[in-house]
Amino acid sequence: MADMRMVDLPSGEQVPALGQGTWHMGENQRRRADEVAALKLGIDLGMTLIDTAEMYASGGAEEVTRAAIAGRRKEVFLVSKVLPSNASRAGMIRSCEASLRRLGTDRMDLYLLHWRGGIPLAETVAAFEELKRAGKIRHWGVSNFDTNDMEELLRVGGGAAVQTNQILYNLSSRGIEYDLVPWSNERGIPLMAYSPINQGSLGRERSLQAVAERHGVTTTQIALAWVLRQKGVIAIPKAVEPDHVRENRAALDIELDEADLAELDRAFPPPRRKEPLAMI
Ligand code: NAP
Q1: In a domain? residue 4
Q2: How many Å lie between the centroid of ligand 1 and the Cα of residue 157?
Q3: CA 242 to CA 240: how far, in whole Å?
Q4: For ligand 1, what atom is nearest to the CA of residue 194?
């Protein structure tokens, strides 16, 4: 197994190109032990970036994360998200403190605005910066921001401190390649690809079978390797099945060649014009 590939944040810090998602974790007490074990296995394999949110299972996913990182907080790059309705000056401080309690830590590595809501960006940025000064978060970023939202963010005072934009990106959702991907690359702002295997459905795509057979891997691994092919992209698949966790880690070592990429482009054509940002 090759070493974990790293991606540079604008701050200069490096984070793993492959992390772990937690959506739907913490929803069912009977699955909790398996969820904690999966995240721990992922950390053992180097997938030390964990993405969670106050929204997931109303805090339950943060509690699962707490159990998974207990005793090894320093190994982990911890990401959580604030709901847009809580992204005001006072609301964000309350939300962040509640997330930190559920996560069992006194500092988050990266705190994201889950999607854009009604609170002015300037106020949200000011709240993020206040949390940074208070030592409760180390970095902040956004999620589900299209290119025009990012441009607006960079015009807001302090907005240039954004460290990432977490967006839907996978073979069946390539719209951002038209403008958001090049825009972000030019500015050195990494994209964090959520639902990189389209919530598992890309594994059932027959059009991925031939490429998967050539590499001796699964169709899901091809879909994940395709997201990971790009510099400046971090992928955060969610997996509870231990075999899935191992396969996802192994996908990092798959090198897709030009023939593979051309075949995937035929099955999932890149965008030819601007498309509205897709979200789940
Ligand atoms: P995903 O990671 O694309 O897919 C997860 C599904 O794929 C699960 O059903 C999982 O099954 C299955 N799976 C995982 N690895 C597999 C493998 N190697 N082979 C076959 N199946 C596999 O979907 P997602 O959870 O929507 O997205 C990932 C993370 O992104 C989320 O968990 C969340 O942290 C984040 N996210 C953020 C936003 C946002 O608005 N910012 C929105 C959506 C998601 P098992 O669990 O049974 O292993």
Answers
A1: no
A2: 34
A3: 6
A4: 30
Instruction: Please answer whether residues 125 and 153 qualify as being in contact, where contact means their C-beta atoms are separated by less than 8 angstroms.
Output: yes
Q: Is residue 146 in some structural domain?
A: yes
What pLDDT is stored for residue 2 in this prediction? Answer: 77
Domain membership of residue 1 (yes or no) is no
Residue 55 carries which side chain, given as an amino acid letter?
M
DSSP single-letter state for residue 18: B
Q: Which of 194, 220, 222, 233 to mutate to test the pocket of ligand 1 (most atoms within 8 A of CB)?
A: 194
What average pLDDT is seen over the chain? 97
Domain count for the chain: 1
- 210 in any annotated domain: yes
Range of the domain at 246: 15-267
Q: Using a 6 Å CB cutoff, which residues line ligand 1?
A: 21-23, 51, 114, 143-144, 166, 194-200, 203, 218, 220, 236-241, 244, 247-248, 280
Q: What is the pLDDT of residue 45?
A: 98
Average pLDDT over residues 39-67: 98
Q: What is the pLDDT of residue 31?
A: 98
CATH of the domain at 75: 3.20.20.100
Kindly give the distance from the C-alpha atom of residue 123 to the centroid of ligand 1, in angstroms, as a whole number.
31
pLDDT average, residue stretch 69-84: 98
